[in-house]
Amino acid sequence: MVFIVCVVMAGICAVGMGLKERQAKDSEEEAGKKEQKENVQSDGQEEAPDEVKTPEKTPEELLKEEVEALTLEEKTAQIFMVTPEQLTGVGVAVAAGDVTRQAVDDYPVGGIIYFRQNLQSPEQVEEMLSNVQSYTRERIGVPMLLAIDEEGGQVTRISGTQGFDVPEFPYMSEVAKGGDPQKVREIGEQIGAYLKEYGFNMDFAPDADVLINPQNQVVRYRSFGADPELVSAMALAQFEGLKSQGIVGTYKHFPGHGGTTADTHEGYGYIETTIEELREREMVPFRDGIDAGVQVIMAGHISCPNITGDTRPATLSPMLLQQILREEMGFEGMVITDAMNMGAITQQYSSGQAAVEAVKAGVDMILMPEDFKAAYQGILDAVKSGELTEERLTESVCRIWKVKKGLENE
Catalytic site residue 371? Predict the structure, then answer.
């Protein structure tokens, strides 16, 4: 009997111990599940496994990727602005049809500049420019810079042309005598409005030259005057007026054409200015313009032997464009040459040589080479030979495309 009781009690103890072990095991499993649950939950949200996030690319990086995707030939074409006649080979261009479409396809240039001979009526200009933009977007994906010299006063292509009902303005030298930048801004707004209406997006204005030499016949009536501060205020006012209408203004002619006696359209022109004088006078409007956000500066064919130690025109001078304009003055925008078919260039350089030297000096866009195709081939050959690098070309096209991308946001 005692033996039976002991056996029963041992069984009960064994069952009890087994139950406790199972309870302990269950408790441990439950605790493990709870811990696991807590590890994957936070405020009711399941934690995702760690991921390596790729940083978003900046607009500059995206723009550079687009430019780097272009062929060498496309990049080379982009650094040129030519007349429609230079592009197409026709006598006088007053329309843009199949010939223009084929020319843009073969040479997708960065810009076209138009003159009075290309303008017959508002409707004709609108259709011509609209077609060019359509061909360009199909070919290269960004707008073309469609430019004109419309300063107001002495230099205009549209104002004063028969068939165009637009305002005519006095010489800028006369307008500035009133000392009121608002009047100049209003002129910029009016010019910008009709340029925009016709399809232009770039104007080679304002003239930011300080008239150092009263006998200067090139910019005597185009300059706002001899006072650097006055010229600066007036140039900025016209620039802002153009900008308000979606037109890219261009400060010209760096480092300053107001001290010359010669006309660089005809041949060699120089100024005897020292670097100290240049900083105190000619550079003032350009420096203020850069601070105000000017995107495009035109380099003139002006030599500064007392500064550079040679007779190279500014368009071909690394010292004037790289050391002074970019490094000292901090300009990061687009540099375009004055017309490269002018005597100051053609009397000393071939079209190919001039184009290559301009890019080496720091120029981004070459305006109207004497022989476009020779200049184009000169750049290609220079890259292939190693005289220029393709990266240098990419750098310039990026600056050009930045201006064009800004137009897309207007």
Answer: no
